[in-house]
Design goal:
The chain is α/β, with parallel strands linked by helices. The protein has helices spanning 17-33, 46-53, 73-95, 119-133, 151-162, 171-179, 226-246, 261-268, 283-290, 301-309, 321-329, 344-356, 358-387; strands at 5-10, 38-43, 56-59, 99-103, 136-142, 165-168, 188-189, 208-212, 250-254, 275-277, 295-298, 314-318, 336-338. It is globular.
Amino acid sequence: MTRKRIGFFGLLGSGNLGNDGSLAAVLNHLRSEYPNAVLDAMCGGPDEVRELFDLDATPLHWNQKEYRTAARLPAMARKAFGKVVDAFRIAAWVRRHDVVIVPGMGVLETTLPLRPWGFPYSLSLMSLAGKVFGTKVMMMSVGANVIARGPTRTLVTGAARLAAYRSYRDEQSRTAMREMGVDTSRDEVYPDLAFALPTPAAPASPGTVGVGVMAYRGGNEDRGQAEEIYRAYVDKLTEFVRWLLDDGRTVRLFIGDRADLEVVDELVKLDPARITLAPTATLADLLRAMSTVDSVVATRYHNVLSALKAARPTLSIGYATKNDVLMAEFGLAEFCQPIKELDVAVLRKQFTELESRSPAVIETLTKQNAVLADRLAHQFAALGEVIR
């Protein structure tokens, strides 16, 4: 077989465990099935990708201050110049590959603050270069939502249309793309790629509750109320954690992104002896840590996913519909709350009810995990067809 040149593209190595977990799942498969393939990445955190995955990596942006606000004219000029440079850099990188894979991630959604000339611009450049140079672009198990009309929607849908292969991590994502005018008749729905990672098997610590936190400040439409939204969420979460402590529990905190550490700092102050942060450098670490708690209350999508994969009774405080869709797939639709309408009294009742059903819930989660793993085997078969 001719040595295939396969690249990964996205906000990888940037501190988000879910994004890196999706990369790990596909990378593990390729290294097993295509040991002679030449693999590399163009990503947001190349140093971390090299260290974590032993994978050659190129920076996504020429301007290393891309995600800092440009308040002065020189910084604004540098950003504008960087966009022009990136067009040539991305095109040259794509041209060197037979296949470029966007592994999972919410690359077609705007549930968190997102500027059109950030990642949507880079994604559209990559897809366009793939079309021009004959490089097959694969978007595997990606997330999407309906985006309001404007430049972000134009860039995201344009990038999707130019891809040679698309699949989505849930039906709502495929429906969203269809509603935005993308032909999805040949697109499939598969589970999140993280479900292809090895399932942890560790005994739970009795009386320990996992709490997944997030430095949540709303989406694009909430920029004016960002701090107010953050404060309301953290205060309510603090009230719930205090209730757990009063009930004699110990609490293990989980993050999904380095930004979440500011919430950890606030919660640990309640009782440093009984509230600890689980050390998690990778999604695999997170999965192992999740398996050591009795139950989980989480906000970030991949915290919820990891708890379900570890077959732990899970309660979701969701910031996007994708949380609710995932929970419903595991039969836990009644154990969800939207983050902006979080009610601590209801949360306590839900938690108590969830714990009372723990044995039956664990059995259901275990069976559903087996189903999802089987469906992902079909996703990897489709990957093989494109690589050939």
